[in-house]
Amino acid sequence: MKCIVYNSGYKYQLKEEYTFASTGIMPPEDIATEFIRLDLNGNLTIAKGYAWDGPSGPTIDTRNFMRGSLAHDALYQLMREGHLDEDTWRDPADRFLQKICKEDGMWALRAWWVYQGVHLFGKPSADPANARPPVYAPDGCES
Question: Residue 143 has what pLDDT?
Fold first, then answer.
Protein backbone atom coordinates (compact mmCIF):
# COMPACT_ATOMS: atom_id res chain seq x y z
CA MET A 1 0.00 0.00 0.00
CA LYS A 2 1.31 3.46 -0.87
CA CYS A 3 1.19 5.77 2.15
CA ILE A 4 1.80 9.42 2.85
CA VAL A 5 3.11 10.94 6.05
CA TYR A 6 2.17 14.51 6.96
CA ASN A 7 1.53 16.93 9.81
CA SER A 8 -1.89 18.45 10.23
CA GLY A 9 -3.00 21.75 11.73
CA TYR A 10 -1.38 24.22 9.36
CA LYS A 11 -3.17 26.94 7.38
CA TYR A 12 -0.38 28.97 5.78
CA GLN A 13 2.80 28.26 3.85
CA LEU A 14 5.62 30.75 3.34
CA LYS A 15 6.28 31.36 -0.35
CA GLU A 16 9.61 33.19 0.07
CA GLU A 17 12.35 33.03 2.69
CA TYR A 18 11.94 35.69 5.36
CA THR A 19 14.36 37.07 7.99
CA PHE A 20 13.52 38.87 11.21
CA ALA A 21 16.58 40.84 12.30
CA SER A 22 17.40 41.28 15.98
CA THR A 23 14.68 39.26 17.69
CA GLY A 24 16.47 39.64 21.02
CA ILE A 25 16.49 35.86 21.31
CA MET A 26 20.14 34.86 21.23
CA PRO A 27 20.91 31.17 21.61
CA PRO A 28 24.29 30.00 22.91
CA GLU A 29 25.01 28.58 19.43
CA ASP A 30 23.51 28.88 15.96
CA ILE A 31 20.38 26.80 15.46
CA ALA A 32 19.59 25.37 12.04
CA THR A 33 16.64 23.09 11.30
CA GLU A 34 15.06 22.17 8.00
CA PHE A 35 13.01 25.40 7.87
CA ILE A 36 14.25 27.64 10.72
CA ARG A 37 17.60 29.28 11.44
CA LEU A 38 18.36 31.40 14.51
CA ASP A 39 21.87 32.80 14.79
CA LEU A 40 23.89 34.04 17.77
CA ASN A 41 22.83 37.64 17.05
CA GLY A 42 19.13 36.78 17.24
CA ASN A 43 18.44 36.88 13.50
CA LEU A 44 15.59 34.49 12.70
CA THR A 45 15.36 33.17 9.14
CA ILE A 46 12.40 31.09 8.03
CA ALA A 47 12.73 29.13 4.81
CA LYS A 48 10.40 29.08 1.85
CA GLY A 49 7.87 26.30 2.35
CA TYR A 50 7.55 26.68 6.13
CA ALA A 51 3.98 25.93 7.25
CA TRP A 52 2.31 27.49 10.29
CA ASP A 53 -1.17 27.82 11.69
CA GLY A 54 -1.30 31.62 11.91
CA PRO A 55 -2.78 33.44 14.89
CA SER A 56 -4.18 31.02 17.46
CA GLY A 57 -6.96 31.25 19.99
CA PRO A 58 -10.08 33.36 19.87
CA THR A 59 -8.76 35.87 17.35
CA ILE A 60 -8.98 36.93 13.71
CA ASP A 61 -6.22 36.27 11.19
CA THR A 62 -5.59 39.87 10.13
CA ARG A 63 -2.66 41.08 8.03
CA ASN A 64 -1.21 42.93 11.01
CA PHE A 65 -1.00 39.59 12.85
CA MET A 66 0.60 37.40 10.16
CA ARG A 67 4.32 38.28 10.46
CA GLY A 68 4.09 38.12 14.24
CA SER A 69 2.37 34.74 14.15
CA LEU A 70 5.03 33.45 11.74
CA ALA A 71 7.92 34.45 14.01
CA HIS A 72 6.11 33.29 17.15
CA ASP A 73 5.22 29.89 15.70
CA ALA A 74 8.80 29.35 14.51
CA LEU A 75 10.26 30.32 17.90
CA TYR A 76 7.79 28.08 19.75
CA GLN A 77 8.68 25.25 17.37
CA LEU A 78 12.35 25.68 18.32
CA MET A 79 11.27 25.37 21.97
CA ARG A 80 9.13 22.28 21.30
CA GLU A 81 12.03 20.67 19.48
CA GLY A 82 14.41 21.41 22.38
CA HIS A 83 16.61 23.91 20.53
CA LEU A 84 15.63 26.84 22.79
CA ASP A 85 15.04 26.71 26.53
CA GLU A 86 11.34 27.39 27.15
CA ASP A 87 11.86 28.91 30.61
CA THR A 88 14.39 31.40 29.26
CA TRP A 89 12.92 32.30 25.87
CA ARG A 90 9.13 31.94 25.98
CA ASP A 91 8.39 35.40 27.38
CA PRO A 92 10.87 37.12 24.99
CA ALA A 93 9.19 35.26 22.10
CA ASP A 94 5.79 36.46 23.33
CA ARG A 95 7.08 40.04 23.60
CA PHE A 96 8.58 39.81 20.11
CA LEU A 97 5.15 38.79 18.78
CA GLN A 98 3.65 41.87 20.46
CA LYS A 99 6.39 44.12 19.02
CA ILE A 100 5.96 42.84 15.44
CA CYS A 101 2.16 43.18 15.62
CA LYS A 102 2.51 46.81 16.71
CA GLU A 103 5.09 47.47 13.96
CA ASP A 104 2.59 46.08 11.45
CA GLY A 105 -0.13 48.49 12.54
CA MET A 106 -2.02 46.57 15.19
CA TRP A 107 -3.55 48.78 17.84
CA ALA A 108 -1.46 48.76 21.00
CA LEU A 109 -4.39 47.51 23.08
CA ARG A 110 -4.99 44.53 20.78
CA ALA A 111 -1.24 43.76 20.70
CA TRP A 112 -1.26 43.81 24.51
CA TRP A 113 -4.20 41.35 24.52
CA VAL A 114 -2.31 39.14 22.05
CA TYR A 115 0.67 39.14 24.41
CA GLN A 116 -1.57 38.35 27.39
CA GLY A 117 -3.18 35.47 25.51
CA VAL A 118 0.07 33.76 24.57
CA HIS A 119 1.67 34.56 27.93
CA LEU A 120 -1.22 33.02 29.88
CA PHE A 121 -2.21 30.16 27.58
CA GLY A 122 0.72 29.46 25.24
CA LYS A 123 2.86 27.27 27.48
CA PRO A 124 1.56 23.95 26.06
CA SER A 125 2.51 25.08 22.54
CA ALA A 126 6.15 25.50 23.59
CA ASP A 127 6.29 22.22 25.52
CA PRO A 128 8.32 19.47 23.81
CA ALA A 129 5.69 16.96 24.97
CA ASN A 130 3.23 18.58 22.55
CA ALA A 131 5.16 18.14 19.31
CA ARG A 132 2.81 17.37 16.43
CA PRO A 133 3.01 13.68 15.63
CA PRO A 134 3.10 12.55 12.02
CA VAL A 135 -0.16 11.34 10.49
CA TYR A 136 -0.25 8.36 8.15
CA ALA A 137 -2.78 7.88 5.38
CA PRO A 138 -4.75 6.09 4.15
CA ASP A 139 -6.11 3.88 6.93
CA GLY A 140 -3.93 0.83 7.39
CA CYS A 141 -0.62 2.67 7.02
CA GLU A 142 1.72 2.33 9.96
CA SER A 143 4.70 4.24 11.14
Answer: 56
Note the pLDDT of residue 29: 96
Mean pLDDT by 10 residues, the chain (143 residues): 84 96 96 98 97 87 96 97 96 98 97 95 85 86 71
35/137 Cα distance (integer angstroms):
24
| Exposure of 104 in the CB half-sphere (CA atoms within 13 A) | 17
Peptide bond between residue 27 and the one before it cis (omega within 30 degrees of 0): no
Dist CA 123 CA 115 (whole Å): 12
Residues 67, 106: Cα–Cα separation, whole Å: 11
- C-beta separation of 40 from 10 below 8 A: no
